[in-house]
Design goal:
The complex is a heterodimer of chains A (529) and B (73). Chain A is 36% helix and 19% strand. By secondary structure, chain A is an alpha/beta fold. Chain B has a single domain (3-72), classed as OB fold (Dihydrolipoamide Acetyltransferase, E2P). In chain B, strands 1-8-6-3 form a four-stranded antiparallel β-sheet, with no helix packed on it. The chains are: A alpha/beta (529), B mainly beta (73). At the A-B interface, loops of A face strand 5 of B.
Amino acid sequence: MSAKPSDDGSWQPEVDELALRRAQADALGGPSAVARHHEQGRLTIRERIAAMADAGSFQEVGRLTGQGRYDAEGKLLGVTPAPYVMGLAKIDGRPVAIGGEDFTVRGGTSWSGDRKKGGQGGFVEDMAHHYRIPLVNLIDGSGGSVTSINRRGHSVFPGVHGFERSVQLMGEVPVVCAVLGTAAGGPAGRAILSHWSVMVKDTSHVFAAGPPVVERSLRQKITKEELGGSGVAVELAGTIDNAAASEAQCFEMVRRYLSYMPQNVWHLPPVVDVGDPAERAEQALLSIVPRNRRKAYDMRRVIQLVVDRGSAFELQPSYGKALITCLARMNGKVVGFVANNPMVYGGAMDGPAARKQAHFVELCDCFHIPLAFLVDVPGFMVGRDAEAAGTLREGMRSVFVGLQASVPMFTVVIRKCYGMAGMGATDKNGLELKLAWPSAEWGSLPIEGGVAAAFRREIQASPDPAAREAQIEKELRAMASPFRTAEAFGVEEIIDPRETRAYLCRFIDAAQERLATSVGPKPKYGVRP
Amino acid sequence: MASIKIKTEVTGSVWKIEARAGQRLAPGATIMILESMKMEIPVIAEDGGTLVELHVAEGESVNEGQVVATLTG
């Protein structure tokens, strides 16, 4: 025992030692390490947790963990805290498991105690699993270090602290990862194993391995920012979903994201009534789609006008831009919106857009969030580059994921709905409710693309091939009126665009019974294409 | 004054240029219209500014991410 026994028989000396040990933990890597960290524009892990969680709600676990230093008599000289801080906290009044690396102690590298505190397979993950509460990972660490060979006397087999719990959590509770510094190796992998991830522009980076390893392996001289800044990780690769301008904005975004999520897959997301009438009809919707079919329009504005006021939160806004994915509320209930973006390739689905749709549909299905598709898709992206990028495979994977999903889906055809990509925007396993605006058009492929191929001989045989092609196009287009399909009940309703919100709210309200009786984990079978 | 590089979001061709060098553009004003996938895709000065230079001409092909105009804020 390091504390001297007390004279009055109480445990005061030990309690004093506890206070000392707690103070050492709170000091993290010491004043100079903390100052260096602050100089880089970064908060410490304790400041981050305080900023993220409701005031006073943090209940730490493992505060005393670390490396004790003792004199020859066994008296405590000090403790270097383990480079991971974690525990329970509340976000908007709801419990979460939260933790993150402490970069001020050995750069947040892994630390080997009897039991792991954080990262993959750590106590923080066990807490999220056993208590069925969301997990918030605040990542700022570079994973393993070769120096651990010295410490252990042997090298560690990869996966001794594996990702099995991290993977399990993906089907149980919301997992959010915020990359707040440099994430390489294990912590970078951990960031990807999340339902939603965010990083801070300029001060955070994510990669499999950093510049020194890249230079040694490939003789590439490259900066951290060029290798794994948000320009690469968020915009180009889609490795991380969103970018924040500051740590404060990042925490705000995490809080916002979680507000749409249930605590776990055994519950529905919380209903928040913002007092926006379900019957609200927006005049602007009547003319938002240009009559000229070649002209694009602002699909984000369509979403904003339809959903509960101010409730849209866009995921992956700068990746796969031909598609827009938003969490939003309709009459208070959380709904996932998937909308094609005519401003980018006329809304044609390319590989990144398909990947984005597949992930978003799976996310919403997992947490029992119904989906609303606002459709304006001419089909999969065409051309040699698109074929070489595996667009067909990515596209069919997104169709496959949609067909495995069992959450109710609502389709609103705004303009074009063509081909396999169009089919992927319908609820084939469910009611398959399809509403259409008067501007809607659909088919296996757009008429202008299909006429030349289907009527090739007839066009070639004509004395004026161009005129004949235009004539055929005109005849076919006349029959392609959405009202004719509605007569055949091939589409369930044509609606005034201003009625979109009211229609969707009624059907989404009606689907609540189905949602409430379908909670729980969703097993997935088969092989994705 | 910050220099703003305007990039295209799509591969296609320049169909029509709507603004002139030296022109003051309001936020959201159209600089040029591209043609891609048989659609007219406007390139917009999101935050507005003065158009310093156009880097492309009508009829020219453009690639996704290419800088097509420079503005000052």
